[in-house]
Amino acid sequence: MAMMILFLLAFTTLSCLVTNSLGNTIETSCYPDLLDVGSEELVAGLESGAWTSVDLTKAYILRIQEVNPVLNAVTEINPDALAIASAMDAERANGTIRSALHGIPMLIKNNIATSDRMNNTAGSYALIGAKVPRDAGVATKLRAAGVILLGKSNLSQWANFRSSNSTNGWSAYGGQVTGAYYPNQDPSGSSSGSGVGSSIGLALASLGTETSGSILAPASQNNLVGIKPTVGLTSRALVIPISEHQDTVGPMARSVSDAAYVLSIIAGKDENDNYTLAQPWDTPPDYTNSLNFSSFRGARIGVPRNALSSSQYNQPVLDAFEDAISILKKAGATVVDNANFSAYEEFVADSNDPVGKGTIVLSADFVSDVANYLSELTFNPNNIKSLEDISNFTHMFPLEDYPERDTAVWNTSLSLGYNNTDPRFWDAYQYTSYLGGEGSVTGALKANNLDALILPTDYAYPFAAFAGLPVVTVPLGFYPSNSTVVKQQYWNLVETGPNIPFGLSFMGNKWSEETLISFAYAYEQRTKTRSKVRPYIVPNTQLKDVINT
Ligand SMILES: *[C@@H]1O[C@H](CO)[C@@H](O)[C@H](O)[C@H]1NC(C)=O
Ligand SMILES: *[C@@H]1O[C@H](CO)[C@@H](O)[C@H](O)[C@H]1NC(C)=O
Ligand SMILES: *[C@@H]1O[C@H](CO)[C@@H](O)[C@H](O)[C@H]1NC(C)=O
Ligand SMILES: *[C@@H]1O[C@H](CO)[C@@H](O)[C@H](O)[C@H]1NC(C)=O
Ligand SMILES: *[C@@H]1O[C@H](CO)[C@@H](O)[C@H](O)[C@H]1NC(C)=O
Ligand SMILES: *[C@@H]1O[C@H](CO)[C@@H](O)[C@H](O)[C@H]1NC(C)=O
Ligand SMILES: *[C@@H]1O[C@H](CO)[C@@H](O)[C@H](O)[C@H]1NC(C)=O
Ligand SMILES: *[C@@H]1O[C@H](CO)[C@@H](O)[C@H](O)[C@H]1NC(C)=O
Ligand SMILES: *[C@@H]1O[C@H](CO)[C@@H](O)[C@H](O)[C@H]1NC(C)=O
Ligand SMILES: *[C@@H]1O[C@H](CO)[C@@H](O)[C@H](O)[C@H]1NC(C)=O
Ligand SMILES: CC(=O)N[C@H]1CO[C@H](CO)[C@@H](O)[C@@H]1O
Q1: Residue 74: CB within 6 Å of ligand 6?
Q2: Is the model's pLDDT at 82 over the cut of 60?
Q3: Residue 502: helix, strand or coil by DSSP?
Q4: 13-53 pLDDT, tens digit each
Q5: pTM passes above 0.90
Q6: Which of 163, 165, 406, 492 to mutate to test the pocket of ligand 8 (most atoms within 8 A of CB)?
Q7: Residues with catalytic annotation?
Q8: Distance CA 329, CA 213 (A)
C-alpha cells in the first residue's frame, strides 16, 4: 500500500491526490473546491490558463440553479454575465488586467442598482421594471475593476424595514432565503442571500448593505467574514436606502483576504454620495496590506463586559468568546476587561422604546431617503414616489403578502409627520450618535486607550450602527451537534440549532478598517473556524464539469 502511494505520487504530477472518507488515497482533478476557494487561487488559475472567467461564470450559474429551489439565495442571474466574462477573458488574453479581481464573479444585494437588464427592487413588486440612470456607485467600481456582476441576491424585503412580523430573508419578489447549515435555517438578514451565496460558493463573494446588523449578522450566521465599513467609506449612491446616517455597503466573503480585496475596490469617494467626501484621504488604503499575522503583538483590545448578556441558549457563544480572548492574549494582545459602555443602560432603554430616538432616526431618514432614491428613477412603472405610495401599493398588491406580513414599520414612519429635515430628527440623531459613540464604542476606546473592542457579533452591531462606525466579523464558532433546535414563533425558521455558525466582531473608530482587518486576519489564521463546520447542503457542480464542455 505504501509503495502504491509512492508510485502514484511520482507519476501524477499533473493531478492531485486526496484521502477519501474511507482512508484511501485517490486521484482527483486539481481544480479547487468552489465551496471554499479564495480569490488568489482563482486568479492564479485565470493567469495560468487552467480555467477562464467564462468557465467560472458557467460553474457558478449551475451551482445557483442546483441549490436555489431550496435556498432561494439568488433573485436574478445577470443575463449578460457570460458575455461580460468573455470580454474579461479577451482583455486578460490581451494583457489588460483591470484589478486584482479582474474576471471574478460576485453577487450583489438586490437593493444595489445596476443600469443593465437586472431589476433593483429591494424585493418589492413595486419596483420591478424600474430603471436607473447609471450603476450604483459601488457597482460602477466593481465593473470598472473587471468584476463580473453575476446576479442579485435575495434579501429581507426593504432591508428589513417594513414589518414587525416577517422573517429574515423573505421578500415578496424572491421568496424565503434559508441558510445552508441546517434545514430551514434562519439565514439572518437583511443581506440574507449575500450571506448564503458566499457561504456555499455561488460566487467568490458578495456585497451586502447594513443599517444595523444587515451585513454583520448574516455574515456571522453563515460562517463568513463581513466588513461593515465606516459610513461614508463606500458609496450608497443608487442603493435603495433606509438611512443616510447609518447605511453602508460592504463585502461578505469566505476569508478576510477576499473581503479585503473587495473592500479595496469598492471604497473611495463618489460625487453622488457626499458622505464619501469626508474620507480622510484622496485614495483609500489597499486593505490587503493589513493582512498581518502578527497584528496582535502589542495591541490593546477591550471587552465591554456590560454589553454581554446570557440567555437560555447562547452558552456556546459565550464559551467560544472566552476562548477567543485567550487566543488574543497568547498572540501578544493586552486584553482590557470591563472596558464597559458608559451609556449601556440608556442604550437599552432607547431600544426598548417603540418611539425611541433610534426608531425616530431610521423612520425620518427613510421618508426622505427613499423618496430621493425614487426621484432618481428614469422609468418608474408604478409611479411610486414616496413611502406613502410604497405602503399603498403593498397593501393592494396580493403578492406582497399583506396583511400576513404587516407594514407596521412604515406606519411608524408615516405617523411621525416629519422627515430628516426637522429639528426633532436632528435632536434624535445627536442622541443616537452619543449612544453609539461617546456613550459606548468610541468612549470605551478612548477611556482605555484601546486599538479595538471585541464582542460576539450578535451583541456588537447596534452600537456601531448608531455612530456610523466600522466593524469586522470573522467566524468564531458554531452550535454543537447536541444543541436544542430553537424555532421562530410564527414562521418556523430555525434560529439556533446544530452547526449554526456565529461570529466574533472587532469594533473601532471611524476609518480604522485597516486595524480591524489586521486583527480579524490574525484571529482567522490562528483558528480557521470556517473549515471546522460543513453546510448540510452544497452544490455539486465544480470547474471540472464545465471546462471543455
Ligand atoms: C488590447 O490591449 C491594448 C493595449 O493595452 C488596448 O489598447 C486594446 O484596447 C486591448 N484590446 C482589447 C480587446 O481589450
Ligand atoms: C426583471 O423583471 C422583469 C419583469 O418581471 C423580468 O421580465 C426580467 O426577466 C427581470 N430581469 C432579470 C434579469 O431577471
Ligand atoms: C450632502 O448633501 C445634502 C444635500 O445637498 C446636505 O443636506 C448634506 O448636509 C450633505 N452632507 C454632507 C456630509 O456633506
Ligand atoms: C504587523 O504587526 C506588527 C505588530 O503591530 C508590526 O510590528 C509589524 O510591523 C506589522 N507588519 C507589517 C508588515 O506591517
Ligand atoms: C463592567 O460590567 C460588568 C458586567 O456588567 C460588571 O461586572 C463590572 O463591574 C463592570 N466594570 C466596570 C469597571 O464598570
Ligand atoms: C421633508 O420635509 C420638508 C419640510 O416639511 C419638505 O419640504 C420636504 O419636501 C420633505 N422631503 C421629503 C423627501 O419628503
Ligand atoms: C394611500 O391610501 C390612502 C388610503 O386609501 C389614501 O387616503 C391616500 O390618498 C393614498 N395615498 C396616495 C399617495 O395615493
Ligand atoms: C404574525 O403573522 C403570523 C402569520 O400570519 C400570525 O399567525 C401571527 O398572529 C402574527 N403575529 C402577530 C403578533 O401579529
Ligand atoms: C398601518 O396603517 C394602515 C393604513 O395605512 C392600517 O390599515 C393598518 O392597520 C396599520 N397597521 C398597524 C400595525 O398599525
Ligand atoms: C451537549 O453536550 C455537552 C458536552 O457533552 C454538554 O455539556 C451539554 O450540556 C449538552 N447540551 C445539551 C443541550 O444537551
Ligand atoms: C434565479 C432564480 O432562481 N430566481 C428565483 C428566485 O425565487 C423566486 C421565488 O421563489 C423564483 O420565482 C425565481 O425564479
Answers
A1: no
A2: yes
A3: strand
A4: 345 656 666 666 665 568 999 999 999 999 999 999 999 99
A5: yes
A6: 165
A7: 109, 190, 214
A8: 27
